Amino acid sequence: MRLSRFFMPTLKEDPKEAQIASHRLMLRAGMVQQSSAGIYSWLPLGHMVLKKIENIVREEQNKAGALELLMPTIQPADLWRESDRYDDYGKEMLRIEDRHGRDMLYGPTNEEQITDIFRSNVKSYKDLPLNLYHIQWKFRDEVRPRFGVMRGREFLMKDAYSFDLDYENSKIAYNRMFVAYLKTYARLGLQAIPLRADTGPIGGDLSHEFIILADTGESEVFYHKDILSLETPEDKDQSPEELQALVDEWTSYYAAADEMHVAEKCTVAEGDLITRRGIEVGHIFHFGQKYSDKMGASVAGPDGKDVNVSMGSYGIGVSRLVGGIIEASHDENGIIWPEEVAPFKVGLINLKSGDDACDAACDEFYGKLQAAGVEVLYDDTSERAGGKFAKMDLIGLPWQVTIGPRGLKSGVVEFKNRASGEKEELSPEAALEKLIG
Question: Is there a cis peptide before residue 129, judged by omega within 30 degrees of 0?
Answer without folding.
Answer: yes
